[in-house]
Amino acid sequence: MRALWLVAALVLSLPMQAEANPARELVQHMSRGARPARLGDWVTYRFNGGGLRVYYWRLAVVGEEKDKEGRDAVWVEMEAGTHPAMKSPLAQMRMLVAREGDEIRYDAISRLYIGTGFNQPQEYSDEALQHVLKQQQAEAQKPQNAPPEKPARLPQGVKPTTRTGKESRLMTLAGTVAAVPVEVVMKNTVIKRMWLSREIPLLNLAKLEIPGIGHAMEVAEYGIDAKPRMRIPAPDAPKVRLEYADAIMDDLPGDAEAGHGHDTSEDSP
Amino acid sequence: MMSKTSRFLASRVGALRAGLLGALLLASGPAAAEQELPIYPGTLHTRIGNDLVIGGEYYRLAYFTTPDSMEKVAAYFARRWQDEGYPTVVEGDMKDEGVVSALYTREGLQRGVVLRKHLGKTVGFTVLRDLWVRPPKKPAPGLITLEGALYSQDLATRDDPGGSQSRTTLVTGELTQVQQQVSAELEKRGYAPVRHSAMKVGGGTQLTMEHARKGEQVVTTLSPAEEGITAVVQMWIGSDRPDAVPNDDAVRQSREAWEKAQKREGAK
Hints:
Chain A contains five helices and 14 strands. Chain A has 269 residues and is α+β, with helices and mostly antiparallel strands. The longest helix of chain A has 20 residues. In chain A, 33% of the residues are buried. Chain B is an alpha+beta fold. In chain B, 28% of the residues lie in helices and 39% in strands. In chain B, a hairpin with a 2-residue loop joins strand 12 and strand 13. Chains A and B meet through helix 1, strand 2, strand 3, strand 4 and strand 5 of A and helix 1 and strand 5 of B.
């Protein structure tokens, strides 16, 4: 049911003109078997930025437990690397995120581990995590608080439109799936094209293309048997902590508050 | 309060945002368990020492020789690691030298092979480097830090009971001047000169000095690298025994062996 809401919201948020109800095809598609995210769900996407700029991104639900506020929560792992097998990811993230019913609240993170490059993954201290979340929140609220921007001027009489196609069999790197195309079109030019599929776990996204800049994101692999893969550091291992610049440098110019909040890691190699 | 629809959408958007964060991390970037050295098939690999500590990091090294060309050997390792999905780098002209290395980010390891030509064959040094575990700092009181050093690298063994450590340094200064600096510093630390020798090597003079303090030895070899630059190799051994076992350990082991032998005799 939530998938239906997603689809409806997704389509309704796009500019519309050509069709009276472009969401209908999507809603019908999703109503035939879309399911909420479950423990074990995983999906890997291939990003193609043109030329040799190809990399993979994996999202997986690998565990369930209560968070420190007693809420139901799931462990979500994200990895990015140059190979879909992710034997040697270049970035790893593992976070405990609250779950409300079927919904994973990616904005309600209570624990976070990050590993970049060949560095050993480190957990964020509570203080550092709160700092990061606050920054993200402020970033998210910025557009709401900012004065409304003037929309980019388009040629007179030209408006972007959204259109959905009929459900079709889409060939992807992960096999052929049933998917519904959603296109944002300007005159006869496709600005963005998405294929949404109930068969793809977590994001229900099979493929996304931005033809004008040659970017594409396509499902490469998916499944329902995800296991935790990050090598968790020992509980007494150093955590990522905030370091206060004004505590180190007494005569730091400017506002002392502004000097706060540099997240850094203890004893990093 | 957020509506269900917008929260659901926010959850997806949040996931995508986190994905983009991962992408940014990727764009900005490249265990102590028993781990294998890289192997080139059909050749005999000879370990160099046990676990070595080079520049404060754990290494394992081995070498092999093969009549195969450098390009072929490099291509074997590069293809293997790339096919398995490890970020792999290939460097060198593949005529005189070549290096192939791969990062194992989950385990915190780097595997690599350094290739050189020798007597018409390809010589490969296979390397396993630990990127996470750092050795405890073991002081080597006999290794001195020289003024005016252009380059300095320390080498130690992980499990050597004698605790031998070496330091290679390139230092500005003529050989005699550097020799005096080394001798003065060692004597200041309580090391007494035992013997020294000089020999002609490649048209230059190579000087070897031996100093000792109780059960410790320091052997220093100095040779001119180029005009005004001297190469210094210092080796400190925490024992004066040929097997490099520290004296107190040797006495303890000997006593234990004697006690065991006595017990065996008594049991008979």
